[in-house]
Amino acid sequence: MSIDGGEDFVYIDDVMDADMEMDVEFLDADRGRVDVENEYELLTRVTDTSSAQARRGKDIQGIPWSRLHVTRENYRQTRLDQYKNYENVPTSGERIDKECKQMEKGAKYYEFRYNTRLVKPTILHFQLRNLVWATSKHDVYFMSNASVMHWSSISCNLSEVLDFSGHVAPVERYPGSLMEGFSGTQISTLAVKDRLLVAGGFQGELTCKLLDQPGVSFCSKTTFDENAITNAIDIYKDASGGVRFMASNNDSGIREFDAERFQVLNHFRFPWPVNHTSISPDGKLVAVVGDHCDGLLVDAQNGKVLSSLVGHLDYSFASAWHPDGHTFATGNQDKTCRVWDLRNLSSSVAVLKGNLGAVRSIRYSADGQFMVVAEPADFVHIYSTKAGYKKRQELDFFGEISGVSLSPDDESLFVGVWDRVYASLLQYGTRRPYGYLDSYV
User: Fold this and answer.
1) Which residues partner with 327 through β-bridges?
2) Could you tell me the sign of the dihedral formed by the alpha carbons of 36, 38, 39, 43, in that order?
3) Residues 401, 385: Cα–Cα separation, whole Å
């Protein structure tokens, strides 16, 4: 992945000339009309958006289009025209635009539930967007500046889990752990699953915390190479049910750790920096993508390359496995997500084109019915696997996407939005035939 340069983030207020004091004006306007006990409740009422408010016509992000000098439709077109997709291979996106058409949209699998602007997800590296993780349909972990934060959508409580701006050191002793810890770690990637939180840093740092225990369990540097950034973390279970995680690094290596003793089990090297890996449900195969147009399918036991994945036109930053273990997907800066079938890897079985930028995150639902694909900004696509990826729902909003995550039960879908004014956490829920059920989730 790239170390210098990158996308110039286009903030909403840069183009639409929004008033930076807009929220203060809303706050003042409501003081005389709303009887509340504290400022927190008032701020929540003013800035947050519920599903009921959205049904009555309020913008889900709270953008006051009627007060602006541009309509939502015109601003959407401006974003599509002006957003600059980052490419390592010049014109890769243009070639895709000419060769591929988008799948039919209009399906509705998830519906808007809530948007909170009290939550402020952030992004540190423009290509790494796996910074939002749901551990239940109500609990979400995400990066906000230098801190890992937890948000409960039931209590609307925001709490800090780890602050990396200062000194972080382990409270337990394991072989290979740096007991002196780290100071001022810049977090590049995050993963939270099975009570385990793993954060990766710009200098190859790994910090591991068990969510049900105080303090940090393990700190380590995967590499001392100059080009050491940790690009992705994949947490999973082995055949016996033990928790493991795999770190993908810019030093062209992937390292597998067990989460009981935090020891390195495997270390494989490749010809190029590895941007993302994901392991198959049976634990036997690893999809590996990075700074190369081709991806790799690798034996998880010995690192042997079993097949190349040929078709993408640029570098890839995302991958995910379908629960069936036969199909998996890769996401690329050529603005496509490609779906592959183990039974015939000569070509991808589906090429799914985005609207404006690279595919930075991919998630399959636990039941295998849906695949969620996130662009760098503004759009998240939900594809029906049962329809052969030919039908999709398009989530349309404004802002850079810090991450996207489905809850383990597939009930909730969370999207982190980063923007100077409209940073927030969007929550969607599985669509139900009866609207009154919204009050019970």
Assistant:
1) 341
2) negative
3) 23
* Residue whose tokens read 């948007």: 115
Sheet strand arrangement including 157-163 = 132-134, 139-144, 147-152, 157-163
- With CA atoms as reference, report the closest residue to 88 among 276, 247, 351, 312: 312
- For the structural domain made of 74-139+240-248+257-440, what CATH number should be given? 2.130.10.10
pLDDT computed for residue 44 by the predictor: 54
- 316, 330 in Cβ contact below 8 A? yes
d(C-alpha 380, C-alpha 399), whole Å: 11
Nearest Cα neighbor of 419 from 401, 397, 399 is 399
* Angle in degrees, 0-180, between the axes of helices 22-31 and 39-47, rounded to the nearest 10: 120
Residue type, 292: H
Q: Partners of 288 in the beta sheet? A: 277, 296
Domain ranges of the chain: 74-139+240-248+257-440
User: pLDDT tens across 95-135, in order?
Assistant: 999 999 999 999 999 999 999 999 999 999 999 999 999 99
Q: What is the CA radius of gyration of the chain?
A: 21
For tokens 């599509």, the residue is: 80
The neighbour count for residue 436, using CB atoms within 10 Å, is: 7
- Rounded CA-CA distance 337/74 in Å is 27
Cα–Cα distance measured from residue 425 to residue 153, given in angstroms and rounded to the nearest whole number: 10
Please determine, for residue 70, whether its predicted confidence score (pLDDT) is greater than 70.
yes
91 φ/ψ sector (left φ>0, alpha ψ -120 to 50, else beta)? left
Beta strands in 195-345 (DSSP E): 196-201, 205-210, 218-221, 230-237, 243-249, 253-258, 264-269, 274-279, 285-290, 295-299, 305-309, 316-321, 327-332, 336-341
Query: How far is Cα 148 from Cα 139, in angstroms, rounded to an integer?
Result: 13
